[in-house]
Amino acid sequence: MSIDTVVMKRIILTGGEQVKLFSITDVGKRREINEDYIYTSEKPVGNLPNLFMVADGMGGHNAGDYASKHAVEKVVEVIAGYTQETDSENILQKAIDDANTHINKMAKSDKRMKGMGTTLVAVTVEGNYATVANVGDSRVYVINDFITQITKDHSLVEEMVDMGGIDREAARTHPDKNIITRAVGVKEYVLVDFFDVTITEKEKFLLCTDGLTNMLKDDEIHRIIRESADIEEAGRRLIEAANANGGRDNIAVVLVEPFGGQND
Questions:
Q1: Which CATH number describes the domain made up of 6-257?
Q2: Spatial separation of the C-alpha atoms in residues 183 and 116, rounded to whole Å
Q3: pTM value?
Q4: Closest CA to 138 of 67, 74, 47
Q5: How far apart are CA 180 and CA 261, in angstroms?
Q6: Domain boundaries, given as residue ranges, for the chain
Q7: Cβ within 8 Å of residue 175, ≥6 positions away
């Protein structure tokens, strides 16, 4: 079964700077339900100047779909109302904590949703600085002449790599690759990783789920983005390439050029 690809494209002027944004999600070739969820706002959300998120739900029946959508919606709701705080990390921490509590309570109250949870990556950019939040194995990259993974996967295989049990190449095809060690909503409390990133005019952000990174190596992702005329073409080509390589999972891609690629 296949569903139509969902696409959003915006080119926005914010504070005199052109912000380019393209986001796309696809059900893939093997799944019937799309449990990936994306959210983008180039405009302020509460005290955050902008907000970009990707989530990948997990759980039986429709629970994964519910977890990703409602976790993201809860994060947005909390940020919009949490105006007493101005620090981006503190705002995101509060919002993700509340989303975790919400999903966890729903999972406990409905046996059909038992064990549900979701990955979540979030980025907010102010000037030349970005705050990145991460739970799970969805990823954030910075793209320039190189591709740099900012987030660190919270997965069993990543722990095995850290301990020297397997190398990075073997990790790509390991049978336990999809076992994650952290997720929003699975436990009463969640540990969020934060990263501070300094960006330049030529750089762009890629937020994505493992439906992309399990199908394409980092250098393939980088090549497609670099060879594309713009981020819309890049986003579409990334989806096509992931599906051409098997499309074993839902795929979500968000590409953000905070400075509009003005020096490309």
A1: 3.60.40.10
A2: 9
A3: 0.90
A4: 67
A5: 34
A6: 6-257
A7: none
